Amino acid sequence: MGVRNLIAKSDSELLVNQVNGGFQARGPRTELYLRCTRRLIGKFKEVRLPREKNNNADALEKMGSQHQAMLLEFIPLEIQEIPSIPEVEVMQVERYVVYDENLYKRGFNQPLLRCVDEEEVNYILREVHEGICGNHSGGNSLAMKVLHQGYYWPTMKEDAANFVRACDRCQRFANYSSMPATLLTPMVSP
Fold it and tell me: In Å, how far are 8, 63, 95, 178, 186 from 75, measured between CA atoms?
């Protein structure tokens, strides 16, 4: 093509900062697009992506989003049928990290939670439920306590509920309902 210097304008501050290296890309799909963009940028001698003085790109974005038939005649519209990156199976892999040969789950507002296997699950549940500080709490409460201790596994709530149901002391001293099994029939006295 012969183009050596390129000035690209964008209405997205996020996109500009990701390409310039100010922001990091989140998610596998965004990272693939960013790698493709950086590979294309490498073919030019100089590429500038200024975010300031970007009035033309902002105006073009506003006109395109209004979908007015009169304006769409002047704006060339191209629909890309084939994506520029290969389709990927996106799993929730970005929420997990390996650290010191252990798998951890990242939370939004909590520290890293160590993922445990089936052998450790019973010991952890027993220790939190009946251990030194255990108070024989219910299933949901037990699951939350285990979570606060820094452990995680996918079937945590179901396993905690099953563990509490199997606990003899919890069943023996549990609150029981004195309500009859059938509905009461209201009676009117004369």
Answer: 18, 9, 40, 74, 74
Q: What does DSSP assign to residue 23?
A: S
Q: Where are the domains of the chain?
A: 7-72, 93-172
Statement: the pTM of the whole predicted model exceeds 0.70: no
**For the CA atoms of 85, 91, 92, 93, what is the dihedral angle to 10 degrees?**
-80
The one-letter amino acid at 119:
E
* Amino acid (one-letter) located at 45: K
Q: What is the pLDDT of residues 43-84, one digit of tens each?
A: 777 777 666 666 666 666 676 666 655 665 666 666 767 776
Q: Which CATH architecture has domain 93-172?
A: Orthogonal Bundle (1.10)
Q: How many residues does the chain have?
A: 190
